[in-house]
Structure formats: structure tokens, C-alpha cells
Amino acid sequence: MRSLYSLFSTIFQLLLPFIGLFSQKLKLFANGRKEVFSTLQTIFPISKPVFWFHCASLGEYEQAVPVIQAIKKKYTNSFVIITFFSPSGYEAKKNSKLADHIAYLPIDTKKNAKRFINLVKPEIAVFVKYEVWPNYFSVLKTRKIPILLISAVFRKDHIYFKKYGGFLKDSLSKATHIFTQDIESKDMLLANNVTQVIHVGDTRFDRVALQLEMNNKVDFLEKFVNNRFCIVIGSSWKEDEVIFMNTINRTSENICFIIAPHEIKPETIQRIKNTIQIPTITYSEQTNLEQLKDYKVFILDTIGYLSKAYYYADIAYVGGGMGTAGLHNILEPATFGIPIIIGKNFEKFHEAKQLRKLGGLFSVTTAEEFMEIIKKLTIDVKFRNQTGMIAGHFVNSNTGATSIIMNYIADVNIKT
User: Fold this and answer.
1) What is the distance between the alpha carbons of residues 82 and 52, in angstroms, rounded to a whole number?
2) Matching CATH number, 216-396, of 3.40.50.300, 3.30.565.10, 3.40.50.2000, 3.40.50.720
3) Tens digits of residue pLDDT in 239-251
4) Which residues, listed in sequence order, are joined to residue 103 by a DSSP beta bridge?
């Protein structure tokens, strides 16, 4: 099976130029990998200790951030390289100052894995969540380079635990240490004879907790909110709009809304604006800060402000759960200690299930249910404060994964 996988990976790489013809995203996926090795050759070898982090996309990047920050703080002379699998992750973070170099991960062929690791020569390789690449893991293991899998999550239906997934489970066994998000993942690995595992929690809790230490004030949001009751709708999709639009259009005078759609294409923004019946302005339209208080809805048709928008929220709705896109990050608003509302599809999101059980999060299936919970949270201050306190405590009580991971890294003989 491993041989078939390697053969498929080689064929897939040969087809990359043609794959890029089918969509803009696939074009980025293919073209972004053309210059990876030539660029690396201009950078490496270097005299600093190299830490390699690999993330599938943006979500995994967020999980890597607190560990990278801790490494940069402890090993001030280090060199951090981050690789991405997907264009959505790479394109969003290719200019980030967090790492010394950011690149696409070359396709997982034997030749690429050897070439990449021979060039980069990492002291340690950190893969996030369930990024398991058999050829890379094999070369790293052969070179005796520690392999860490952090914020790992595993379920019964994962390929690793199927009869035909034995070669992937074998790759998991090559990891030096696996740090899981939850107890269930740890137990699943142990039951399958993968024993180098410890449950430490999700590093995203450490990531969002750091937000409280930052200056979250934004001048245009400050002027827009203007001490009004604020509801923030984050990372919404078209399916989510069906849930909250009626409430927005029927809201009282002293409530304002900030909407941060997941997609900020012009047609998406226009569709949202056409549906809203109360005074609305977008980030790109604003020209006079003093006039922002005259609007009731502010649409963020830009990126980079959602986490700070939650700072102004009294209630947050987090999108993705009404359709099949996948629920977005509920921990960002939770860290500010505010009640959270989501859609109906959240069964694969452990933290959402936990927070709902604790009473800090509400799931709705209809526009009527959304309006009902908004009314209760708006009117009943005690209920709102208690719910928000549960959400904030949930984040605070689950921090600490980064420290445990760093304690392990400190035991590795890093060449400085």
C-alpha cells in the first residue's frame, strides 16, 4: 500500500501543470510549488537551528502560532520555516513575520521528501492536527529528526484505523511524540498500539488567550459601536444569513451589528447589503469616522479585524454551522467572555459540544430560534453575563498545551 501511495504521489506531481487549468485555486496549488526548491537553495544551509512547522491551512496555522512564538522567545537565534499544503493558508500568510520563511509543501514523493529535508535540515519537525505525510515521516525518522504531531485529533472513521490504512498508521508510529487535543484521540491511538502519545489539549486555547493581552481597540469600530449593544456575526456563509437576517431587519434602535462574511467577494457583499433593510455601511465605503454611528450595520469586506471585532461584542454568532462548510472558530469570541450562538451542524467540533454542554453556547436551527435566543440574551442581563462568564472560563481553564509541548522540546538536544 505504501508503494501505491508513493506511485500515486509521483503521478499526481507530474499532473500538476494540467490540474492548474481547472480552477484558480488549483492553479495556485500547482504554480506555488514550482519555485519551492530553487528558493530554498538560496536560503539553506544556514548556521542557525531550524524549526520546521507544517500546516494544512489557516486553522492549523493558528494552532501552530503559540508554539512558534514560544520557540522564537526561547531560541532567539533560531530559524522557523512554515510550510502549507493549501493555497488558502499559504496565500493568507505568505508575508507573515511570524516565520523566517513560508513555503508550499512539495508533494509527498520519496524524492521530494529527501530533497526537502536534506536542504532544510530541521532540528525538529512539527506537524499540526492530522497532517501525516508517509514519505516525509519516513525520511525524518531515518535521519533521527524528532517528529511532533501537535493538537492532534483522531476519530474512529479516520483512514488510519481502517484495514486499508495500515501504512498511514505505521507513519503515525514514526512520530516521536503525539500531543492530542482530547482524551478520546489519545485512547483511540493507544487502542491501535500507537503509544507515544499524551493528552495536552488544543493550542488554539493558548492562541486566543493571548488576544486578551493585545490592544484590541480599532478606531472605526469604536466610532461605529459608540457604546451601543453590539452583536458580531463572524465568518458567515449564505446558509447562515437565512438565520440572522430577519433579526437584523427587525432590531431595535439601540442595537448595532458587525458582519464579517467568510467570503468577501463583491457579489457576496452586495447580496448581503441587498437583504438588509436598515442603514448599512461597509469597511471599503467608510470615509468619515464621525458618521459611522449613524449606521446600524457595519460589514467588514476586508480581512484581519474579526478577532478585534469580538472585543466590541455583547453577543457573537459564529458561522459555518448552518451548511456543510464547517463551523468556524468559536474560541475567538469565547476568550472575551461573551455568549456564542452557532448553527445546527457542529457534531465534529469537540469544543463546541463541550461549551454547549456547559451552557456557554447555543445552537439554533431556524430564524425563529435565533431571534428567541437573541431576545433572551439582550433582555436578561444576568443570563447574558453568566453565559459569557462560562465561555470565558472555558477558554481560560483549557490553556497550557503550549507549555507542555515546549517542555518536551526543551529536552531535545537543539544545536545552538
Assistant:
1) 6
2) 3.40.50.2000
3) 999 999 999 999 8
4) 83
- The sheet carrying 280-282 orders its strands as 280-282, 297-299, 255-261, 229-236, 315-318, 340-342, 361-363
Q: At what angle do helices 367-379 and 381-396 cross, to 10 degrees?
A: 100
Tell me the fold of 2-201+400-410.
Answer: Rossmann fold (3.40.50)
Instruction: Output the CA–CA distances (angstroms, integers) from residue 284 to 167, 230, 253, 278, 298, in the order listed.
Output: 50, 20, 24, 18, 10
- The predicted-structure confidence for 360-416, as pLDDT tens digits, reads as follows 999 999 999 999 999 999 999 999 999 999 999 999 999 999 999 999 998 876 765
d(CA 125, CA 50): 9
Please choose, from the candidates 234, 227, 274, the residue with its C-alpha nearest in 3D space to the C-alpha of residue 258. 234
Q: Report yes or no: 364 and 343 within 8 Å, Cβ to Cβ.
A: yes
Please give the C-alpha separations between residue 19 and each of 14, 30, 239, 363, 407, in angstroms, as whole numbers: 10, 7, 30, 39, 43
Separation of CA 148 from chain center: 18
Q: Determine how β-strand 124-128 pairs with β-strand 147-152.
A: parallel
Look at residue 415 in the predicted model and tell me its pLDDT. Answer: 66
For residue 45, cis peptide bond before it (omega within 30 degrees of 0): yes
User: 346 CB contacts (<8 Å, ≥6 apart)?
Assistant: 321, 327, 352, 353, 356, 363
291 in Cβ contact with 315 (< 8 Å): no
